[in-house]
């Protein structure tokens, strides 16, 4: 194995920040009773012989707080887009109007709110795992650098402590995002 280089902690902090940002993006696809263009971001459509994100075959707009409008660019994939939205597990039933789909956003039931809160928790756990994996990578890098004599033992200890602080901070921000999203979901 080649000699280790000195670990660069801001690189790991940036990766943890990206995990938090990814969680917030995933939360955008969980509806909390009002329409959002991000609601359909996770919907994948069978089109042109492959599976593509909905934003590659249509534009999504929000005409009002209770509905979305999906403007499909190619008439040949309208049925595929409708089917993808229906089967996305979002509880939405689009209405086809030519090359456009009107997607009414029904009010959430208490049971559906609990399911969405569970889904938010699942997304949160995935990002916490990602942050812990980043911590492991950083610590492995620090250990290798110490073993190869690139950094002294006391600096390795200081860097390991710093990585733990970055991890704790990222996990705290993830938990705060979940708390905010759960409050948003459960609000009637």
TrEMBL record:
Xref: InterPro entries: Ribosome_recyc_fac, Ribosome_recyc_fac_dom, RRF_sf
One example of a Gene Ontology biological process annotation: cytoplasmic translational termination
UniProt-annotated location(s): Cytoplasm
Keywords from the named record: Cytoplasm, Protein biosynthesis
Listed Pfam families: RRF (PF01765)
Residue stretches making up the Ribosome recycling factor domain: 23-186
UniProt keyword annotation of Transcription present: no
SUPFAM superfamilies in UniProt: Ribosome recycling factor, RRF (SSF55194)
Family as reported in the entry's similarity comment: Belongs to the RRF family.
The name this protein goes by in its record: Ribosome-recycling factor
Organism annotation: Phenylobacterium montanum
């Amino acid at each position: 194995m080649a000699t280790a280089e000195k670990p660069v902690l801001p690189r790991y902090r940036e990766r943890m920040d990206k995990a938090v940002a990814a969680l917030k993006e995933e939360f955008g696809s969980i509806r909390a009773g009002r329409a959002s263009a991000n609601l359909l971001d996770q919907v994948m459509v069978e089109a042109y012989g492959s599976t593509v994100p909905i934003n590659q075959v249509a534009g999504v707009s929000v005409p009002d707080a209770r509905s979305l409008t999906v403007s499909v660019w190619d008439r040949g994939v309208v049925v595929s887009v409708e089917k993808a939205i229906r089967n996305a597990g979002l509880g939405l039933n689009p209405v086809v109007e030519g090359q456009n789909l009107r997607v009414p956003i029904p009010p959430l039931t208490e049971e559906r709110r609990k399911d969405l809160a569970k889904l938010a928790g699942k997304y949160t756990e995935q990002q916490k795992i990602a942050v812990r994996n980043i911590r492991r990578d950083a610590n492995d890098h620090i250990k290798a650098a110490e073993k190869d004599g690139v950094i002294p033992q006391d600096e390795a200890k200081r860097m390991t402590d710093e990585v733990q602080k970055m991890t704790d901070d990222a996990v705290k921000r993830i938990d705060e995002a979940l708390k905010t999203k759960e409050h948003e979901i459960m609000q009637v």
